[in-house]
């Protein structure tokens, strides 16, 4: 059964990525300092800056930008002269400004992703600890069940389909629940009260059921929320 959120950090191997960024920075610097001022080799500093997207540290874009600007300044003084130093200085200054703007955009994106990660973690903790049973269904297959939902199942049951959960209710409610699922897929929020639940498990409880369309893994899904009345 899938976890509530499949969250993967883009930072697959930070040491490898940092090493690669360092190597590219040095290669670009060597190329820039070895070529005439008129050749815009320094534009390749965009590559290591973009690669900071794969690092979790939020301020990595500014660090790479700072190193890049330092290398650009040094190479300006040591690159062979083939054009006016004034125009070369203008070109490099403008590019440094572009690096700072791009670094700011990457940093802003990293902050947004970080806040989203924190929000997902908090929401997942709430769902996992909820006393309400929460089930996510895509098509006819169950994709997620929270611990409270698993507590409703006994024996060796395999809650892998929507029919499993429908059949936990009284046969008198089958068509009502199926109709509710169809309406939820059309955008409606369905609430069904005082249903006989646990027929298959011989529990004979009374439950309330909420059915709503949600988004799961970028696809449309149905969320079932079951509350057992005490």
Task: Point out poorly predicted stretches.
Answer: 2-9
The tally of helices reads 7
**How would you state the average pLDDT, rounded?**
86
Q: What percentage of the residues does DSSP assign to strands (E)?
A: 15-25%
- What is the number of beta strands? 5
Q: Give the helices and strands as they follow along the chain.
A: HHHHEEHHHEEE
Q: Report the sheet with the most strands, covering strand number, pairing sense and barrel closure.
A: 5 strands, antiparallel
**Protein structure class:** alpha+beta
Shape: rod-shaped
What gyration radius follows from the Cα positions, in whole Å?
Answer: 29 Å
How do the strands of the widest beta sheet line up side by side? Answer: 2-1-5-4-3
Considering DSSP H and I runs of 4 or more, what fraction of the residues is helical?
40-55%
Gap between N and C termini: 28 Å
Describe the structure.
The protein has 230 residues and is of the alpha+beta class. It has helices spanning 14-34, 46-51, 60-78, 85-129, 147-150, 162-166, 174-185, and strands at 133-138, 141-145, 190-197, 205-216, 219-228. It has a five-stranded antiparallel beta sheet with strand order 2-1-5-4-3. Residues 2-9 have low confidence and may be disordered.
Which key features would you list for this structure?
7 helices; alpha+beta; 49% helix; 230 residues; rod-shaped
Q: What order do the helices and strands come in, and which of them pair?
A:
Blueprint: H1 14-34, H2 46-51, H3 60-78, H4 85-129, E1 133-138, E2 141-145, H5 147-150, H6 162-166, H7 174-185, E3 190-197, E4 205-216, E5 219-228
Antiparallel strand pairs: 1-2, 1-5, 3-4, 4-5
Helix pairs in contact: 1-3, 3-4
């Amino acid at each position: 059964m899938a976890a509530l959120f499949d969250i993967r950090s883009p930072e697959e191997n930070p040491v490898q990525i940092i090493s690669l960024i360092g190597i590219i920075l040095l290669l670009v610097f060597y190329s820039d300092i070895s070529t005439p001022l008129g050749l815009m080799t320094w534009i390749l500093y965009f590559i290591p800056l973009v690669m900071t997207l794969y690092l979790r540290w939020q301020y990595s874009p500014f660090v790479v930008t700072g190193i890049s600007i330092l290398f650009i300044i040094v190479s300006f003084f040591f690159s062979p002269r083939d054009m006016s130093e004034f125009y070369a200085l203008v070109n490099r200054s403008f590019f440094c400004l572009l690096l700072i703007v791009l670094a700011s955009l990457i940093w802003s994106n990293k902050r947004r992703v970080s806040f989203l990660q924190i929000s997902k973690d908090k929401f997942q903790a709430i769902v996992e600890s909820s006393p309400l049973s929460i089930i996510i269904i895509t098509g006819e297959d169950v994709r997620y069940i929270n611990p409270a939902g698993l507590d409703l199942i006994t024996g060796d049951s395999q809650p892998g389909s929507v029919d499993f959960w429908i059949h936990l209710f009284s046969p008198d409610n089958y068509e009502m629940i199926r109709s509710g699922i169809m309406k939820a897929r059309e955008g409606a929020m369905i609430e069904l009260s005082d249903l006989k639940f646990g027929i298959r498990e011989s529990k004979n409880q009374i439950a309330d059921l909420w059915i709503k369309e949600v988004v799961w893994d970028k696809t449309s899904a149905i969320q079932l929320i079951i509350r057992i009345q005490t």
